[in-house]
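All the exercises in this workshop are built on plain-text protein records. A record pairs a protein's sequence with a compact description of its fold. The structure tokens are whole numbers drawn from a learned vocabulary of backbone shapes. Once this layout is familiar, the rest of the handout is easier to follow. An example says more than a description, so a record of this kind follows.
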Amino acid sequence: MRKRAKPTGGNTVDVVVIGAGHSGLAMSHCLRARSIEHVVLERGEIANSWRHERWDSLRLLTPNWLSRLPDYQYSGTDPDGYMSVDEVVDFVSDYALAIDAPVRTKTKVTAVAPMDIGYRVRTDRGDWLCRAAVIASGACNLPEVPAISKALPANVVQLTPHGYRNPRQLEPGGVLVVGASSTGLQLADEIRRAGHEVMLSVGEHVRLPRLYRGRDIQWWMHACGLFDQRFDEVDDLGRARRVPSPQLVGSKERTTMDLNSVSAAGVQIVGRLAGVRDGKAQFSGSLRNVCALADLKMNRLLATIDEWIDCHGGSHDAGPVERFELTRLPRAPRLNLDFGSGEVRTVVWATGYRPDYSWLQAPVLDRKGLVRHVGGVADAPGLYLMGMPFLRRRKSSFIHGAEDDALELGEQLAAYLRTLPARLGTRMAI
């Protein structure tokens, strides 16, 4: 690594990586392999979100054998299982040790501002000057709570998955879970089994079986190359990045969790929460159409897998072709709820997450507050992004998706650094 004089007012380094989750650490490994001087800044501890912002029973949706990072993979005794929160923390923390990542924990980034060349990264423990920066702070920093939440009566307790840990913290009485992707489905099932009456508000969702033809559904998606589909190969990338997480759960029994299974457990299925007025909720009447579309898309995926098996001569290794019962719904789904009746005491907003870029002062945010980028190369010189949905591939937001993205972006970042002078300037551009 080249020795450079340090500009006044901060430590100097080639690259600052923001975030010591699996994506930031994967990038750190790739930078070290290229002898690129860098530091990884983490607001809390390594794998901080997994340590402090997940509910107790959560497990990965991907099987253990699929968990890997650059030059590192799962080596435990349960390859077909699904890591618990504590196991994910250990996996990511052990990786940081294995690659000797230069992580500065408990270092909160408060601003990233462009200079003539590079960026000044301000933290609560001093400034860093760098020629390039990688944002790997995650896609799930803040819960996405709709504005409609403000119309709920004051006596209704509102929670998000960031604050929810287990059913013991809930008030007695009924619970409305809004959102039926993997998070909402799992929480509705858990809360119902704890003895609460639960209503699940369902909008657009992705339905998948846990097992198909004798293998985990994600085994087939991996083998078929669906996870490797690139960002420049889809017609509507914006929509692909907004696809909800699939209705899956990682359980020891490898069971399928869908609307049929949770309704069989006693969860009441209602449509999308369309409005709240005068303390009364209205649910959309489109529930049947939304579920029919999810069933249709699931069967299209299964047909794609069947075709791949036939084309690759794998029929003898696979179980028989399967099709699953269509989503069962009440003849007349409920359309309203009076919060004043006391039937529901708590609302859990499982309506997604969004990244927090309140500290980013580079002019790269779109009207929705997301970083404008092409395959992780941000719309600003020397700024890169890791760990976002469909960043470069469909698998980008999964642990196993970080490896390919980091390798490719690391190569582009190295090429960019070769175009710059070795010495950093210090004049702020904004």
